[in-house]
Give the backbone structure.
Amino acid sequence: MDSFADAGFPNAQMGNAREIVSRLDHRRFHVSMFALGQPDTRILERPNTRLVQVPRRGQTLKILREFLWGDHDLIFYLKSSPASRLYLSLRKRLGDRRPTIGTMESQSDLRNEPTIAADAIRLWEKTVLRCDYIFSNSSSVQDGLKREYAIRSEVIPTGVDTKFFSPELNRQQNQRLQVLFVGSLRPFKRPEVLLDAGSRFPQADFKIAGDGPLAAELKSRVARQGLSNVTLLGLLDEENLRDEYRRSDIFLFPSAWEGSPKVILEAAACGLPVIARTSYSPETVVHGVTGYQAASEHEIFLYLEAMLASPDLRARLGRNGRQHSLAYDWGAITAKWEEVFARLAPCHGMRRAS
């Protein structure tokens, strides 16, 4: 597993890796993972698991050594990194036939997103896109990968822990409705839409959970416009984030460029109706059933206005969202990955070509 086992890393892909590993049948699968500091207790306590400690600096050679000579039948979740690039350039010369598996969790038109550096795109193209097998986390991501790079992929969705992310029992009704956004504060996430909504709907409170390059600008605008109903919460750990989901009434996610964001699933699992965008066709938001997919900011505000006005609508969409999220529970998603691993690494001990 080309990922870190450390507890609390906010990186979504690493969080997904920890969720999968913690649920993999230890009787069938031995897992090696890297670790920088204190590992997630679920990984630490999992039988048949080996943790490879790496330094905070100079990781490349140690990771590369593990790729080349580690005792494994396949590499999963290959990252966009110098170690991955070196490994993929060396493996054929060394006759290493062990399968590599990459995942796509965002759209493939990275050149259309100005916040992603050209060097990062080139590294991604030389690593993840060169894996033997690639899996997308939604049909939209799958279609984009085929359109941009003519690469076929299978779809396995991102999951959610529906036991941890769940509605609060006997929840007290808020005196003022609360609308929540969770995500990195970057331009394509469009967190400023929450500020626009705060100005337009002064009868509700708007909360923004996350951090990023736009944090200072958003804070300044809140103060300048006197938006007392908008709060920037900063980056939250998992338990505090769950508490915010449970306290909220609506989840507003105006991001314009996504794969299949896990925050939508987390919100739905906590019983929140969701407003997202149609631009990436999120399969986890069923339009008119669990929430709404909006084609524009105008539509976002129309759907938000309808939700704010109707407790029955919010309750119905929230119940449906919770039920829909159960199909994406990490237990079911991990079972799909177990099938993939068994299919792609059927011959144990296959290391080098003879």
